[in-house]
Amino acid sequence: MASEITNHxxxxxxxxxHFSGASGMLECDYCGSKFTxxxxxxxxxEKEAEAAENLEVxxxxxxxxxxxFAAMGxxxxxxxxxxxxxxxxxxxxxxxxxDSTTAATSCPYCGNPTVxxxxxxxxxxxxxxxxxxxxKDQAVAALEKYYKGKVFLPKAFKEHNHIEEIxxxxxPFWLCDGxxxxxxxxxxxxxxxxxxxxxxxxxxxxxxxMREGNIDFEKIPVDASTKMPDEHMDAIExxxxxxxxxxxxxxxxxxxxxxYDVSQNDSFERISKRAENSVREELRKTVVGYSMISTKxxxxxxxxxxxxxxxxxxxxxxTKWKGQNFLFAMNGQTGKLVGDLPVDKGKFWGMFAAIAAPxxxxxxxxWLFM
Length: 370
Ligand SMILES: [Zn+2]
Ligand SMILES: [Zn+2]
What we know:
- By secondary structure, this protein is α+β, with helices and mostly antiparallel strands.
- The chain has two domains: 17-125, no CATH class; 136-141 and 162-339, no CATH class.
- It has helices at 37-71, 78-82, 136-147, 155-159, 230-235, 264-285, 345-369, and strands at residues 17-20, 25-28, 34-35, 85-88, 95-98, 102-106, 113-115, 128-129, 163-196, 199-223, 245-246, 256-258, 292-321, 324-331, 337-339.
- A hairpin with a 4-residue loop joins β1 (17-20) and β2 (25-28).
């Protein structure tokens, strides 16, 4: 059977393999054997090339299928067809319906980790990957720790485990090298006041302050997936780039992976804004010794010196509370966790009142003594 999917099977017992962050190796769910990424890569290189080829063949088949469905009176819009792919699980044969960016997933029926190598072949192959280091239990523990000490969090939310879904996702990122330069004209002012006889005198002295500079950047990260909220992805930075590895599909089994759906070009504005903001901040920091500072005009420019395609490990946790969804993201390498929490309004105002009350007592005491 021709298949576009690779199941990484244990060479010892044919059980499913998954990548373990703790050991940095592929581990067998059944017999416990461990294999290095290199070993599995070697074993699967041929199968993956074949699977990638099948994926291309199937693109042609899809057009034919579309015509067949049309003949039966079922019309599929191009959007529907483009946004969806159907694969067969090599382990149990079930149909897997994925969206067009899915590159690694697991079978909802038999749980087998599956990889769709065609999504990452040829020009779509990522250059680099940071393998997962933290596992699912560590992600859940981190979320529980995050809840602790949050006074405004509703008690019921804290007590019950409200995690709806937890997924380890390799998120596509662009890593951009470049140089940002800029110049800015600031206006600084110093104010002096004194009393001269019957007059209050205020003297304001204005200065023009010119600044110019440039910064070299290495691997500015921006996520290249429309599915991932940008704020969450920016907030779980930084990643430790020392652990970047050349990409291999052997890091994927057991996790989800998406190929990018935001192009380099479309990411460029976000990248250059980040670099230019850093230059702006650095220039502004050097303007000191004035009581007032404002910017008169400024100019920034970013030069792109090369972009790399990388996959970054992220645990996504979603919870539901009173019909609302809350999304958390944890850096799968460093454990940094970000997300929104529901706020217990009653508690919040209660706390506010507790602070307000002693304050008014102090104020009235001061009033009494005056
Ligand atoms: Zn095994
Ligand atoms: Zn299956």
